[in-house]
Amino acid sequence: MERGTCGAIEMDDDHKASTSHVYDFPKIFVHIKTGTNPSSCPYPGCSKTPPVSQHYSNCKSLDSRVSSLVRNGQQKRKQTAPVISSVNGASGSRLVDFNPLQKRFKMDHVLQSVAVPPHSEISPQTDVAYNNPRTRVSPEKGLMCGNNTLKGQSDDGSCMLISADKGIDEAKYVSVALPEKPEANGVSLIQLFTPDQVREHIRSLKKCVVQKKPKTGKPQAMEQSMSQHPCQLCGVAKLNFEPITIFCTPCGARIKRNTNYYTAKVVDSRQHICNCCYDRTPGDSIVVEGTPCPKASLEKLRNDIIAEEGWVQCDKCHLWQHQICALFNSRRNEGGQAKFTCPHCYIAQVERGECTPLQPSAVRGAKDLPRTSLSDHLEQRLFKKLKQERVSRARIQGKTYDEVPGAECLVVRVVSSVDKKLEVKKQFFETFKAVNYPKEFAYKSKVVLLFQKIEGVEVCLFGMIVQEFGANCQQPNHRRVNLSYMDSVKYFRPEIKAVTGESLRTFVYHEILIGYLEHCKKRGFTSCYMWACPPIKGDEYIFHCHPEMQKTPKCDELRKWYITMLEKAAKENIVVELTNLHDHFFISGGVSGEYKVKVTAARLPYFDGDYLPGAAEDFIHGLQQEEGGIHLNEKTTNKTIAKRALEEYGQDDLSENATKDVLLMHKLCEAISPKQKDFIMVHLQHSCCHCCILMTSGNIWSCCQCDFRLCDKCYEEEQKLEKRDRHPVNEPEEIHMLYPIEVSGIPEDTQDNDVILGSKFFDTRLTFLELCEGNHYQYDTLRRAKHSSMMLLYHLHNPNVPAFVPVCDVCGLNIETGQGCPDNNMCNACYQKDGKSNRSHELTQDTSIVDVDAQNKEATQQKVALRRKLLDLLVHALQCQNCPDPDCHKMKGLIQHYAQCKTRKTGCCVHCKRIRALFKSHAESCELSQCHVPHCRVSKEQQANSRGHAVKTAKGGRKELIMI
Asked: Where is the signal peptide (predicted)?
């Protein structure tokens, strides 16, 4: 009902009610519902007001002035219902303006939605006779169906079927018993809240919408504050997501905003081509992901799409609110038919005793994620340290433990723990093949997340990705750990200083890292590598869109943050040595001058996504491409350069690979020297000062006067030397005694014996970023961080759900879960309107998506087994000759067809699509450097190039973000 006033009303004698006061009618009705005491009411006619509402409910006369007044007010309210123009969903969703009949219909799933015929416009003011003359059809809850009938629901909750063969004025109104909508527990996280928690959440929403400032510099909420139809929770009508970053598949460059680009569907994914790649590619086709695409078939688009936050309508008050504000999980909204109650109506229901909040177990949260030995260790240590810190803070402030605030409701979980293999790059391997350098390294990738319950919602605040190269891995990665990526969002509560003087947030993150190093040391790992490298502008590491208030630290600030943490770990004897990559691997003789180990690139740690492997490969390629070369067998000047470099690093090997090794180390040293302190090497066990091996068994021969240690092997060699050549070499007249310390407590195996935790959403860092970007899971405001974390937990607990909601190719709207025709990317409405006559199959409900928790486990395993069988058959068919196996014969026929098919390039051949998909799957899983399967190496190189933009900084290194 619109805000307004009613003049003096005089009722007829039959109703015996009159007043001469001027009323603000909406306030009167709010006043009546709240049950304010009439004696304290600001309206003089309060005692006469209740009969007005009762009169409208009981009056049978359509001519009554009171009934007409109330009815007209309701009609005005329906006329001014907000027109929603966005759909929250997958990447590339289009903005569509549609009338109220096209909003989210709240009909039972057995009714198929169809488009409203243009000649059958239903007036919002139409009165419908059903049991009593005041029953109305609400257009927001009805839809036009075949044969000019309107299936709808009246304001009082009754359902009806309206026949409109002769027009709406002569419609026949027949009562229809529509099935009750299904109750869906957890469709909104609000269902778990108490009324006080809901009120706190609503108060928080109004603060969050003004946190994010767009490029205009004006708060986004202020621009929309004068809108006529705002969200009833946050008070803002239109909120836009951050634009999705689009990258060019061939070159990996970012496609700038408001520029044109081209797109093509290759196999099962859509790829993008920038203008530069399109223009500089000769001919009529362009190769994308190993597949030639005709330029004429490419779709030209403009990178100017801005997605708007989705809306949801309450089934009680029929008002609209943002899905993010209402903590609405559209994935649980099965077919769009689940009941939804807005926070305001939910509070009223709970306070009237009509419902009670759901148990926390109704929606699985962070605590319900699988526990591991690592997560248990991190949690126990974190809680212990937080308790000690709180006790110390209370003692210093002269208060009791309960009087000082502390961090509560924290949950640490390992959400991914899988075994992987890292293949050594081709040119690097060829350079060091003679010294038995391994062809690949086995490691375990883990993802650790920290959650904190804020205002009733578990928000993901911190994440780190680590690589563990265990005891079964060869040198130089033997028993090493790589801290690959770290990221956080600044919503930690409470925002106070710890007793150590740092923020409590920093204290918690430090303890998680120290706890991880402690756990690694107990398992037998010897060192950890960290790179203090903040992200460049516009890049994200783990979380999509950080808060505006959160500043990115500079290199020296981030390095200081790490060093402070490591100094704490050193006090607990977790870290025994702290050095950097340059001092440990690039200085001949070491810092002390007593190193006797060869300086070579073969000793450098080789980690996935790190700076060194990529830079080394580029440098080797550059050395081979230089004119005149730097090889030993060419010009005299190059021989002199090579000889000097060999002498500098203490080598006398004049072979070609040895020269290449020395020059590679020289170039790498020049590259990292300006920021050598950012490449941090953390030793969890003592290293030998001669051979630099980290000691895990035997004795440590330690000097009683200085920081000098030897392993058993080097100690024996030391005793064979003359006294003047022994330690200390710089002071031959002094005598330093070495005494043995037995190494104990280091297990032979580094395995943690935890179960494998595979997650397709955390298979790589880029996979999770793509999930967040495609579904607009942003962390730029607390309200979005709540919703994004809720959806993250939903995906973790339901790994079989699709990562993205499919979008209808006809109308551009999302295809609701379990509805539509996913094979042809059509929603129910478009299928019934345009697609049914053009399709040979009937529309069916996709039950495999509706109940992913109870189904699909066996089906998924069967699909995986079938895929593996086909891949093995593909490799077999390409190798064997005269095989009697009929399956092999069929596969050979398909391969031959693929090679000769004339329609393959157009993408119309079904058989070629299947073979192409098998080639691509093989390329993704193949670990061989020389594979005989066609397109295998080409596909791998193109995949690496297409993803290279997210793994490179200005010099090609990986990134990592810790907000201080």
From this structure: none
